[in-house]
Amino acid sequence: MITAFDHIAATYDNDFTHGSIGALQRQKVWDYLEKALPDSPLSILELNCGTGEDAVHLAGQGHNVLATDLSKEMVAVAKSKAENMGLGQRTTFIQCDINKIAQADFDSKFDLIFSNFGGLNCIDAMSLQNLSKVASRLLKPNGRFIGVIMPAFCVWESIYFLQKFKVKKAFRRTQRGPLLAQLNEAQVETWYYTPARIETMFRSEFKLVGLKPIGFFLPPSYLENFFRNKQGMLNKLDSMEDKVNAFSHLSNYSDHYLIDLELTKTTS
Ligand SMILES: C[S@@+](CC[C@H](N)C(=O)[O-])C[C@H]1O[C@@H](n2cnc3c(N)ncnc32)[C@H](O)[C@@H]1O
């Protein structure tokens, strides 16, 4: 099956990963992981790994990463990135749908399941609820599930579209059912979830141990062109972002938020 993300795999790093906004947002996620994770090498299962930027970062820090993605092309980019960086031994990449992760045959349990930048927005609420059960079976006791997800409202997005008089688009994340997000020529179904909704969905297996906005002051990456010659402004927004790091309620109004859940109940 060819997915919408297959078409953008070759340009994803150039457009997002190495874009000024994408890189700054990702750094916020890495800052959190650095503080939250123990120094000892962890066994990590990454969902929707894309081009493997986080997998190679985590492997570079000594962790072992089994990274998965639905898109064959994304997995191919990720694999060659890890090999070029000499991190092939600590990374494994496989093409796998989040919805089929329960059927995958893993040798052992994981310390952490990690999903960055909206992969979880590509699955519907029933699948997410089911993922909580699956994750509880795949994790070691007290294992963590860390997801970076797009909430149902984003201040930046609303201001951007309102000043263009595009009222419907300004509140598009609040609509019922999936939104068809445009990815070059292809479209991808996208669901937006408030942090409270995710917490409720995962509540029977996990407890909330961390929540922080990613992109309250930092803008969404589709504003990259606007900020191209405004690095100074972006740096200011970046330091303002650090100041609101601890204001978890701003997660409801940001481009993304990071939610950190700890396993409380192990299911066999
Ligand atoms: C916005 S990209 C994020 C990629 C990467 N995590 C990052 O931080 O750059 C979303 C990724 O989710 C993947 N994806 C979408 N639906 C998926 C699914 N059902 N199962 C697994 N991966 C999926 C896409 O192929 C894409 O690589």
Automatic annotation (TrEMBL):
Write down a Pfam family by its short name: Methyltransf_25
Molecular function terms, GO-annotated: methyltransferase activity
| InterPro entries with a match to the protein in the record | Methyltransf_25, SAM-dependent_MTases_sf
User: Where in the numbering of this chain does the Methyltransferase domain appear?
Assistant: 44-143
One GO biological-process annotation of the entry reads: methylation
Keyword Nucleotide-binding appears in the UniProt entry: no
Where is the chain membrane-spanning? none
Please list the coiled coil stretches.
none
**Keyword Iron assigned:** no
Keywords, A to Z, come to: Methyltransferase, Transferase
What is this protein identified as?
A: Class I SAM-dependent methyltransferase
